[in-house]
Amino acid sequence: MQTRRQFLQSVAGTTAAALSLPVQGAVSPSALKLKYMLSSALYGDMTVEDILPQVASAGCEGLDIWCKPHGTQREQLEAMGLAAFEALAKQKGVHTACFTCYPLGPFDLQKEMPNLKRLGGKLLITGAKGPKDVTGPEAKVAIAAFLEQMKPHADAAAENGLVIAIENHSASLLQTPDSIRYWGELNKHPALGVAFAPHHLREHIEEIPKLLSELGASNLPFIYFQEHGIGSQKKVEKEIELQQLPGRGTLDYKPILTALRSIGFGGWVEIFMHPTPRGVPILPTPSEVTAAINQARAHIEKLLLEVNT
């Protein structure tokens, strides 16, 4: 017969195992849980047949399909036909969550909306159009003008059950902290948000948590987990290039996770980096790419445990 002490130890151990937390940890009701998406671009020009099994292996709930020059998977879908890919993804148990469509830009996305809707996806990611490096009143005017231009496209996205996410990218309209803040203030369309990129805010790292708070969860359907690295711009040793991934560089993700928790973030997160040259896998084989993603994800989850307890 179990003693009272043995029974309590057993219950504590079972509960901890269910939560994947140490016995001494305690998760608050408002704990942040991350929903990971796998970027096909990390696998370069590898086939979708090779990438689909990696989604679950990388701890991800959805797949983000990229096109050239970063990946070739969108072109592969076109060549094989959406029906064939749809059947293959269903067979592998993979949810196609997103199309990343930088070449289309923000004003030519409607052609992809029926395709993504058919595959069950919800998110289209691209960049902004407009004046660059805007700050102060100029940023407010430019962001207001862009949001007005985006209304018919956001309306079309909403009609298809989709959301358009615009990345805060270098050399673009949505780049400076001011432009991001004014987006948070001015955007009211539920089908339009920001694909938040910390790596494009390398000169404003200390402002990232505040910017996330100012945007709020309603403006954040997606965030990249990537930091800026020289390997995204020129050829360097692989270990240096991989420093863009969480846990390998110097970016502290704990304040970012704390801010995401504080706003009740429920969007997608994507562990990401850019290889040089673009369009090649970040590592030679699918399993090696996935192992690197899992190493980065383990780093994030360790910090998340600290944030949630």
What does this 3D model show about the protein?
This protein is an alpha/beta fold and 309 residues long. It has one domain: Divalent-metal-dependent TIM barrel enzymes (TIM Barrel, Alpha-Beta Barrel). The protein has helices at residues 4-19, 48-51, 54-57, 73-80, 82-92, 113-118, 136-159, 177-186, 208-215, 238-241, 254-262, 286-308, and strands spanning 35-39, 62-66, 96-100, 123-126, 163-167, 192-196, 222-225, 268-271. An 8-stranded parallel barrel has the order 1-2-3-4-5-6-7-8. Helix 7 (136-159) packs across helix 8. The two termini are 34 Å apart. Mean pLDDT is 92; it is low at 1-25.
Q: Quick summary of this structure?
A:
The chain is an alpha/beta fold and 309 residues long. Helix content is 41%, strand content 12%.
**CATH topology grouping:** TIM Barrel
Strand content: 5-15%
Q: How large is the count of helical segments?
A: 12
Our count of domains comes out at 1
Number of distinct beta strands: 8
The amount of helix comes to: 40-55%
Give the CATH class: Alpha Beta
The low-confidence runs, each spanning 5 or more residues with pLDDT under 50, are 1-25
Order of SSEs, N→C?
HEHHEHHEHEHEHEHEHHEH
Q: How are the strands ordered across the major sheet?
A: 1-2-3-4-5-6-7-8
Largest sheet: 8 strands, parallel, barrel
Mean pLDDT: 92
